[in-house]
Each structure stands twice: as C-alpha cells, then as structure tokens.
Give the backbone structure.
Amino acid sequence: MNPRISKVSATDNYQLNLVFTNGEQGIYDCSKLLDFGVFKELINKHYFNQAKVIDGTVVWPNEQDICPDTLYLDSVKENA
C-alpha cells in the first residue's frame, strides 16, 4: 500500500503541497482535473484552498476527493 496524506496545503496555481505518512513530500497538479465533472467546482480558488486531509486523502467541502494512491504516484516528489 502506498503512503497516505498527512498534511496538505493548496497553492494559487491549483497545486497541492503534500506531506505523506512516510515523510516524503510532493506536489500534485490539480489543473488537469478542472474540466471534469465534480472537479469543475475547484476552479474557484477560494473553494480550492479549502482542501484538507480526512482519512489519509485530500477532500473538499462538497465531497470531492482524490484517491491517495493517485496523489502519491502522480505527485512530483521533492528531493527526488
């Protein structure tokens, strides 16, 4: 199983700064999701910035979430 998310902070350019449970850090680009279904709501930067961690993954108030495996595998790791 891949590590889960322990901390998230959103940036102004639709990226998530992530800290994983194994101590690694990465950046996940959400801009490619903004044209799809429930993720269209994330285009509102105020809303996007409400990202938080629940149960090891990133979620927003209206129940959008991203699979923690996707966040780990597709993020650009710092110091990689």
